[in-house]
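Re: [help] complex structure
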Amino acid sequence: MQKENFFKKYWLVMLTGLLVGAAAVALTAFGNPANMGFCIACFLRDIAGSLKLHGAGVVQYFRPEIVGIVAGACIMALIGKEFKPKAGSSPVIRFTLGAAVMVGALVFLGCPLRMVIRIGGGDLNAIIGLAGFVLGILIGIFFLKHNFSLGRAYKQGKVEGLAFPVMLIAGFVLTLISVSFFAVSTEGPGSMHAPILLALGIGLVVGALAQKSRLCMVGGLRDAVMFKEFGLLAGFGCILVAVLVGNAILGNLKFGFEGQPIAHTEWLWNLLGMTVVGWGCTLLGGCPLRQLILAGEGNSDSAITVLGMIAGAAAAHTLKTASSADGTGVNGPIATIVCLAVCLLVSVTHLKKEQ
Amino acid sequence: MTNYLATFHTHLAALKTHRSLTAAGLAARMAPVPRRISSSCGTCVLYSAENPCYDKLDTDTEAVYLLNEDGTAALLREFE
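Output below.
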């Protein structure tokens, strides 16, 4: 009976998880880099590159998946009368946390979604990333339980809420009009991509379903620890199952630490990079995927967070803090420590006193 | 006793309301906001009381719902 209720209650988030996992495997089969069918951090980093916000020639491409996710969530929210523009919850702090999360993600080489996808490809370095991610979320929960708050948001007009999704769609239209508007890598991960319309279409479906189901990598662990609610965590698990099965079918499953696609083996920085991501995202109230969905629902605070992530990606490559398959960037370790310090500073300065 | 559900603009507001309700001796618990009520992934407080206890809710309360026996929820009051 308990099991029946669980499936009845959470079937949509579990289905979304399975589809996201399957989509990730499919996107890789159609051209995206290995174990990078879906990675919000990598895709935002590629978009930053396509705008020449950084000069790393191998990671420049205006990823249609990001446009699809935001537009899909926006359309679904409009249909369901859940498009509710709001803003005003510590925007600069959110921008900063978004940038810190991105720097941490690029030390590990992936957002929480790619972390799961990497585990599903057999990359054991991502298990260490997962340990850091859980650690970061637990630290974040500690502060949530001790009165941490970034303050409330307030209602805004429709134009404010639509600005970010429209901006992304306009960028996508420009890529269709002329490839010369944005930089495109000729080698490396940025040069590897699924056909544009397929990537957009999959992004739209994932965005719509994630809006309906509230799929969130951080929310899953947070709800499980704080409220003993395991629905979102089940979605997280379903992504892993789908990727594992998909990779096994396609013969892409290879367990080990060494030689994994777009990954390195420096365990301490894999761990601490994802600690930054877990901690920062818990303070922000959602993982990078969830921030895209909320931005699609008209939440300008999340849009600012995404812009912070794009800025963080640009900084990570310009300041050489991003890792590569060869290992951490020359400034990666110090940047990770700085980002942990930023998370700590934001955490302790936003503990509200009891009235 | 009637069952109520309150949603909030921040997690902190839910935390403070939960403390205030339990300090008054009422049965209250925090949980993720049910999907059918909102697309936001915030925290709500479920509580049982004779009345909605508006005076015990935090200033950042978003809305209060009446929970019916059949599991449906009816909006009682929306706050700014």
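The mean pLDDT of chain B is 94.
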